[in-house]
Amino acid sequence: MYNVVSAAELRALKQLFGQVSNSVIQDGLIHKEEFFRALFDSSDGNLFGDRIFHKFDSKRNGVIEFDEFVRGLSVFHPTADFEEKIKFAFSIYDKDGSGFICKEEVKDFLFEVMRENSKLHFTDEELDTVIEQVPHPPWILQPLPMRNGDGMMGVGHSSLSKGKKNPLAPLP
């Protein structure tokens, strides 16, 4: 995905990487604490941030190197492939990497949101009701046949609106 980023953008990313990667530990690598400070303005971890860090850390060595940084950010580039953006977003919620988002994964993220916002509180039963009542956007999630009530959703090429306007595109 490097071809998505221009030479000028690559220079800007290099400068940004240098600032973030040396903000706490001066070693030219982005550690989790530095990542959280840059992304969330806090060194406190959370499930969402952990998942994004994990997606960026493709070498699984606990740090983000420059090539991983560029590759991770390239999915957010305006000219990046729409299907890649959908897959990235989906993978953040697919914690176990199964290719499906199960009810428990959705609940884990909702509990995390509640943990970070003390004004929100739902019981386990209320969360179940919310999850069951939310319609699944057909251009992102494709409900799977509920064999034995497995309560899982998947994303794939057939569920994306090929040939249709990008529903996430900015309004004119």
Automatic annotation (TrEMBL):
Residues 50-79, 81-116 form the EF-hand domain. Keywords: Calcium, Repeat. Pfam families: EF-hand_5, EF-hand_7. GO terms for molecular function: calcium ion binding; kinase binding. InterPro entries: CNBL1-10 (IPR045198), EF-hand-dom_pair (IPR011992), EF_Hand_1_Ca_BS (IPR018247), EF_hand_dom (IPR002048). It comes from the Eukaryota. GO terms for biological process: calcium-mediated signaling. Belongs to the calcineurin regulatory subunit family. This is Calcineurin b-like protein. It comes from Tetraselmis sp. GSL018. The lineage of its organism: Eukaryota, Viridiplantae, Chlorophyta, core chlorophytes, Chlorodendrophyceae.
